[in-house]
Amino acid sequence: MSDLPASVLFACSENSVRSPMAEALARHFFGHxxxxxxxxxxxxxxxxxxxxxxEEIGIDLARHVxxxxxxxxxxxxxxxxxxxxxxxxxxxxLVGSVATDVEYWPTVDPSAVxxxxxxxxxxxxxxxxxxxxxxxxxxxxxxxxxx
Length: 147
Prior knowledge:
The chain is an alpha/beta fold. The protein contains 4 helices and 4 strands; from the N terminus they run βαβαβαβα. It has helices at about 20-30, 50-55, 85-95, 115-140; strands at about 5-10, 35-40, 80, 100-105. A 4-stranded parallel β-sheet has the order 2-1-3-4, sandwiched between helices. It is globular.
């Protein structure tokens, strides 16, 4: 798979860790070639560790605004990439007969990792690297700077 759809929605449970990270990475790599957004079943402020590990590679997440599925028109996306089981289930319900593809990319929630700051940051970096690799493989290599 290497075709980059015109629009991609990343979805997870709370739009505070995984989906905003995936959105930011996709914009970093392919932002000039497609529209990217993110949403969740619920929304919270972006987790501070997400901002930290993205800043390490030159990505500023300060403008991210959390959204739920109700805040976006899922039918306007060519592809929804879900990162948590409950987001996947909800996305499948929402697309119904709409011509929107849904892919499930199981992604560990790094906010569930216990430990000191270094241990927790390592978990967030691992998710960042995993998502970056998956994006590059799925959409045909890098569309911009690498992680």
